[in-house]
Amino acid sequence: MAKTLKETLADMIPGLREERTKLVKEHGDVKISDVSIAQAIGGMRGVKAMVCDTSVVEPDKGLIIRGIPLGKITDLLPEETFWLLITGKKPTADELKLFQKELKSYGEVPKYVWRILKAMPKTSHPMAMLDTAILAMENESVFRKRYAEGMAKTEYWEAALEDAMRVLGTIHTIAAGVYRIKYYKGDLIEPSKKLDWAADYAKMLGLPPKKGATAKMMRLYLMLHCDHEGGNVSANTCHTVGSALSDPFYAVSAGLNGLAGPLHGLANQECLKWVLETMEKFDGVPTKEQIRDYAWETLNSGKVIPGYGHAVLRVTDPRYTAFLEFGKKHLPKDPVFQTVNLVYEVVPDVLKEHGKAKNPWPNVDAGSGAILYSFGLDQFEYYTVLFSVSRSMGMLAQLVLNRALGTPITRPKSVSTEWLWKQVKK
After folding, report:
1. Helices 383-404 & 233-243, crossing angle to 10 degrees?
2. What is the mean pLDDT of residues 212-216?
3. Residue range 131-157, pLDDT digits in tens
4. Is 330 a catalytic residue?
5. pLDDT (tens digit per residue) in 197-207
6. How far is C-alpha 349 from the geometric centre of its chain's CA atoms?
7. How many domains does the chain have?
8. 255-285, pLDDT tens digit by residue?
9. Which of 73, 88, 53, 71 is nearest to 318 (CA)?
C-alpha cells in the first residue's frame, strides 16, 4: 500500500538524525574548508560552510539531484521531482498518485489573497505580487500555531511539511492569478481537479495548449529550475530565515525576494532581450557571421553576452541542453529558437577568443526565456515568477529536512576590515 509523503519521511528521519548526530560527535573537528580574504569579501564564493542533501552542482557535470545527473531525469513530473528532492527516491506510481491527490487538497487560495493582489498598484512588479501573496498566507501557518501551543522539537518537521504542502499546493494558482490580474488577461481560471501541477499551471495562465506541447514545456521548465544546491541566493535566504524557526511562508517569501534580483532570477529575461535585439538588428534570424559580429560588438562595448558563463559551472549547463533538445523537437521552425541555437554554435568560440570569460558555455538562462516566449509568454518581467514556482520545490524540501534534523540557527562570524589587515600583517 502506498504511503503518504509524511509517512515516508517519518520512516526516514530517525536514520537521518542518527547519521547527523554521529557525524558531529565522532568527526565534528574535521575541517572541510579554508577561507581566503578574497572569498570573505567576494560573497563567500566556494566556501564550504553549509550542508544540502537535495542536490549539488559539480563544475564539470552540472546539477545532480540526489546523486542522479539532471540529464537522466528530465522526464520527471515536478511532483515526482519534489518527492525525489525530499526523500532521495523517486515515488512509485501509487505514491505519486496519492501525493498529487494530497497536494490538491492543499490547493485552496484564501479569498483575502485575491483581494490583496487586486488592490495592489497596477505598476506593481509581478514578483512583488507573488511574494506579497505568499507572505499574506502566513495567516494560514500550521507551524506558527503549533509552535505557540508548545509542540516538541521533534515535531517541527511535521508542521513545516504541512505548511510546505500549502505553499506548494497554491503557489502555481497564485502565480497564474498574478499573471491574469497584472496583464489584464480576464477572469481567474479555476484549478483543475485532474491535471498535474505543471499542466494545471499552464491552463490557469490561459496559454494555448498546442496539442499538449504547452503542458510538456511547463513540466520541463518547472522540473529544470527546481533546485540548485543550498548556496544560491534564494535557497540560502530561505534557509537562513527558516533557521530562526520562521515558518515556511516567511522563509519562502524571503527566498523569493532574493530570487527577484537581477543577478539571480532576472537573468533569463536579459538573455532573451539580447537575442531579440540581435534579430531586430539583422531583420530576422541572423547568419552565424552576423551573430559573431554582434557578439564582438557587445563585448567591445564593455558588456557581457547574457546567458553565457556561470558562477560554478565550467561546462554547458545540462538544463540548457534539455531546453535545446525540447526546442529542436517542438519549435524547429520558430525564429527565436533558431536564433538561440545559432548563438550557441557561435558565441562560445567568440568568448574563447576574447579570453576573459572563465566559462564560455551557456547556462540555463540562455535558452529558457526563448522557450517561454515561443509559447506566448512575452511579458519578460513575469519570467522570474515562473522560476519562483519551480524553485519553491527546492526551498521547501531543504526547509522541511532542516527542521527534521534540528539544524540550528544560521549565525556565521563576521570580521571587520581592520581585523583582516591585522591578519595580513601577521
Report:
1. 40
2. 98
3. 999 999 999 999 999 999 999 999 999
4. no
5. 999 999 999 99
6. 29
7. 2
8. 999 999 888 877 777 888 999 999 999 999 9
9. 71
User: What distance in Å separates the CA atoms of residue 162 and residue 31, rounded to the nearest whole number?
Assistant: 36
Residues of the chain by 3-state class (helix, strand, coil), percent to 5: 65, 5, 35
Contact present, 159 and 147 (Cβ < 8 Å): yes
Nearest to 234 by CA among 394, 383, 126, 397: 394
Catalytic option among 172, 225, 239, 310? 310
Angle at 180 between CA 174 and CA 74, to 5 degrees: 60
In Å, what is the CA distance from 12 to each residue of 2, 5, 157, 404, 408? 15, 11, 12, 10, 20
Please check whether residues 353 and 257 belong to one and the same domain: no
Are residue 221 and residue 124 in the same domain, yes or no?
A: yes
Mean pLDDT of 385-406: 98
Tally of CA atoms within 13 A in the half-sphere of 284 that contains its CB: 2
Q: Which of 53, 163, 227, 365 is catalytic?
A: 365
CATH of the domain at 253: 1.10.580.10
Residue 200 bears catalytic tag: no
What's this model's pTM, rounded to 2 decimal places?
0.95
In a domain, 325, yes or no: yes
Active-site residue flag, 310: yes
The answer to whether 55 touches 85, Cβ cutoff 8 Å, is yes
Say yes or no: 242 and 276 in one domain: no
Question: What is the predicted pLDDT for the residue at 1?
Answer: 85
- The answer to whether residues 379 and 155 touch, using CB atoms and an 8 Å cutoff, is no
- Which residue range(s) make up the domain with 303? 267-374
For residue 182, CA distances in Å to 23, 108, 174, 209 come to: 49, 21, 12, 21
Whichever domain contains 329, its CATH number is 1.10.230.10
